[in-house]
Specification:
The protein has 19 helices and 18 strands. By secondary structure, the chain is an alpha/beta fold. It has three domains: about 140 residues, predicted glycosyltransferase like domains (Thrombin, subunit H, Beta Barrel), CATH 2.40.10; about 160 residues, P-loop containing nucleotide triphosphate hydrolases (Rossmann fold), CATH 3.40.50; about 130 residues, Helicase, Ruva Protein, domain 3. The strands form five sheets. Strands 2-3-4-7-6-5 form a six-stranded antiparallel barrel. Strand 13 and strand 14 form a beta hairpin. The longest helix has 20 residues. The protein is globular. The protein starts with 6 loop residues before the first strand and ends in a 7-residue tail after the last helix. The structure holds adenosine-5'-diphosphate and magnesium ion (MG). The site of adenosine-5'-diphosphate has 15 residues, from helix 6 and helix 14. The site of magnesium ion has 3 residues, from helix 6.
């Protein structure tokens, strides 16, 4: 699925990276970025923010980021806002499309005043910031559908290696924003969310973007380690500290030196251990069990919980002082059923990934299957969704995943979750629903305006005006 038109752009461009101007050859151009010919000196710019100077109607400069693919291709992804992109790249792209006289998606002949193609229904006019914003919105979480489809290995791998996060909902965009902000400092972070919502993924994402990225990320699952072993696990012990201590053991805190210590399920930590952890957090120093040497550990603490810690404090199960100590920066990850827009995006991403992995050519989900995915309440959140998709990919004998393949349990939760809005204001809720359905239609149709109109049961101009009305999504680069 390609979200925006791509036109060939065989011109020389200049990339300003680390104060060096590198001339490279452009290949093609879209609203999201520019593909350039591989160049040795571009190596140094990998994942760097750069300024790119190029000739459109006139000479322009845009900010971007260089991403290098496995097949030795480079793309500069534009980081500019929709206003600037629509007035420069969008204007150029649109004029080239009309000049060519045919739709860049289906090659049908087009007229100058067609905003979208009458045959395939794709956008033709990219001069409006709303349209650009709408399209850019779907690259949030670095899910570039078009690139995923055209260079599966290249981008599939990138997503893995960098543990890219997927999400298009407002909630996830706020979380991406917090991850970036929290990565710049060393304060403790508390991540709250149901199981399978991505707490560990969030912790890793903060670590990987922080200055500690090349140091260890150490996980301690406080619920999985028996109470009497937790202290030894965390702090380590000296030889002879107790009967079975035949040699010195280095604890996880020491292992994490310079890096990040992720304390998962902190709500399950026994009270005695909480006191010891608090003491450690005071000045980040400790002694191994049975030892005297004061050891300083340079670690950042990220803790996660699926229980309401404030409630646990009220019930006397969690120390109030430790709660305040950990609760400096928080991230609340909503359950998947509360961010409907993410469901199909995640489902399609994992369908693509697993069918590639086992070499099946599965095209997508049947409309009924999509409906079932959207209506299910996902008590196990993203982890459950991944398992469901993986199983369906293995079991299906068709090129489309059906509702049967998904084998979702019927549940009664959905009705409850559906009618629990924060306000009962009718207009507000109708607008919310309208915006939500519009986004879903966009995901299902792959940005095809005619299909969106058909799915939504409205005219194509109405789709266009709704996109303008909601100025969908803010761009997160
Ligand atoms: N937004 C997301 N995009 C991609 N994968 C996700 C996302 N959220 C969760 N996952 C995946 O779902 C699984 C469960 O996530 P995890 O971070 O272990 O959840 P938690 O710690 O909250 O139980 C992992 O495989 C993780 O990579
Ligand atoms: Mg977890």
């Amino acid at each position: 699925m390609r979200l925006s038109a791509r036109i060939s752009y065989n011109k020389q461009v200049f990339i300003d990276c680390k104060r060096e101007i590198i001339p490279v050859q452009g290949i093609n151009l879209s609203l999201l970025g520019l593909k350039i010919k591989d160049h040795d000196r571009i190596n140094d710019c990998n994942h760097e923010d750069v300024v790119i100077m190029m000739e459109l109607d006139e000479q322009i400069s845009l900010r971007g980021k260089v991403i290098r693919g496995e097949s030795n291709e480079c793309v500069v992804f534009f980081k500019e806002g929709p206003e600037l992109i629509s007035s420069t790249v969008g204007k150029y792209l649109t004029s080239k499309i009309y000049e060519s006289g045919k739709c860049p998606f289906c090659s049908r002949k087009i007229n100058k005043n067609e905003k979208y193609c009458k045959k395939c229904g794709m956008f033709l006019d990219y001069t409006k910031p709303e349209v650009v914003r709408f399209i850019q919105d779907f690259k949030v979480g670095k899910v570039f559908y078009d690139l995923l489809e055209e260079h599966p290995e290249e981008f599939g791998e990138k997503l893995e290696k960098h543990r890219e996060f997927i999400g298009v909902s407002e909630e996830m965009k706020k979380i991406f924003d917090l991850i970036r902000k929290y990565a710049t400092n060393d304060y403790p972070v508390l991540i709250i969310g149901e199981t399978g919502t991505g707490k560990e993924l969030t912790a890793k994402a903060i670590h990987e973007r922080s200055k500690r990225a090349d140091k260890p990320f150490v996980v301690v699952n406080c619920a999985a380690i028996p109470d009497n072993l937790l202290e030894a696990e965390l702090f380590g012990y000296e030889k002879g500290a107790f009967t079975d201590a035949y040699k010195r053991k280095i604890g996880r805190i020491e292992f994490a030196d310079g890096g990040t210590l992720f304390l998962d399920e902190i709500g399950d930590m026994p009270l005695k251990m909480q006191a010891k952890l608090l003491r450690f957090l005071e000045d980040l120093s400790f002694t191994r069990i049975g030892g005297n040497e004061m050891i300083y550990a340079n670690v950042r603490i990220i803790a996660a919980t699926n229980v309401d810690l404030a409630e646990a404090v009220r019930e006397g199960k969690f120390r109030e002082d430790l709660y305040y100590r950990l609760n400096v920066l928080t991230i609340h990850i909503p359950p998947l059923r509360e961010r409907h827009e993410d469901i199909l995006v995640l489902a399609k991403y994992f369908l693509n990934k697993y069918s590639r992995e086992i070499g099946k050519n599965i095209k997508g989900f049947s409309p009924k299957a999509e409906e079932a995915l959207m209506n299910y309440s996902w008590p196990g959140n993203v982890r459950e969704l991944i398992n469901v998709i993986r199983k369906a990919v293995v079991l299906t004998e068709n090129s489309m995943i059906s509702e049967m393949d998904l084998d979702l349990k019927k549940d009664n939760m959905q009705e409850y979750y559906r009618v629990s809005p924060s306000s009962l204001n009718l207009r507000e809720n109708i607008e919310k629903l309208e915006k939500n359905l519009l986004k879903q239609a966009f995901i299902i149709s792959g940005g095809n305006i005619s299909k969106m109109a058909r799915l939504l049961g409205i005219s194509r101009p109405k789709v266009y005006s709704l996109i303008e009305k909601y100025k969908l999504g803010e761009v997160v680069s």
